[in-house]
Every structure is written in C-alpha cells, then in structure tokens.
Amino acid sequence: MTTRKTLDDWLSWQESLHTAAIDMGLARVERVRGAMGLKPPVR
C-alpha cells in the first residue's frame, strides 16, 4: 500500500478509484424511491 503524503495526493487517489460520475440529483432519488417501492411523501 502506497502512503499518500499530502491531502492533495490522497484526494487525487480517491478520485481515481471510481471514474464514472454518479447522478445524485432529485430525479435519480425519485427513481430509486420508486424502485424500492416506497410511497412519495405526503405534502
């Protein structure tokens, strides 16, 4: 295991582990909620 000497080194390493972007917008959350079979919140 390589030691990361600086925060920048560690952040660069973390960013390189998973290069695909993850959609965390509200539309994605709504799709996940539906896939889980959860009802929308009552307003």
3D structure, described in words:
The chain has 43 residues and is mainly α. The protein has a domain at 7-36. It is 49% helix and 0% strand. It has two helices and no strands. It has helices spanning 7-17, 26-35. It is rod-shaped. The chain starts with 6 loop residues before the first helix and ends in an 8-residue tail after the last helix. The model has no long low-confidence stretch (mean pLDDT 89).
Relative helix content: 40-55%
Low-pLDDT sequence parts:
none
CA-based gyration radius: 18 Å
Beta-strand residue fraction: under 5%
Number of DSSP helices?
2
Tell me the span between the first and last alpha carbons.
50 Å
Give the helix/strand class.
mainly alpha
The number of strands is 0
Round the mean pLDDT to the nearest integer and report it: 89
Shape: rod-shaped
Q: Sheet with the most strands?
A: none
Q: SSE string, helix = H, strand = E?
A: HH
